[in-house]
Design a protein that fits this description.
Elements: H1 3-6, E1 10-16, E2 19-28, E3 32-35, E4 38-39, H2 40-43, H3 47-60, E5 65-73, H4 77-95, H5 100-106
Parallel strand pairs: 3-5
Antiparallel strand pairs: 1-2, 2-5, 3-4
Helix pairs in contact: 3-4
Length: 119
Amino acid sequence: MSAETKNRYIEAVGRRKTAIARVRITPSTKTSFVVNDKDVKEYFVTEDLQSIAQEALSKSEIAEKFTVTVQVMGGGIHAQAEAVRHGLSRTLVERDEVVKNTLKKLGFLKRDSRQVERK
């Protein structure tokens, strides 16, 4: 991999219900996670939502550090966290095919398309 290719970002879209997350990862010297121009701890206020959003990074066990930038819209806060996890998983697989099996077994690469049924 050339230096120019190594420093380029990778982008993917994650979805859950009506929430859509556009996730972008860039190799970096330290890990940072920004959602809608706020820190992940500021945007997802509960520990549970923070762990859902960052689960793909922790479970994939990639030694590299990334700057993760996310634009998320639609849906509720929980669906948004799951959409972020889905998009992040897709970017990590695009970056390194080795993690595909791990993330696939955990179900992070499958889009949960269940919607609220109309009355």
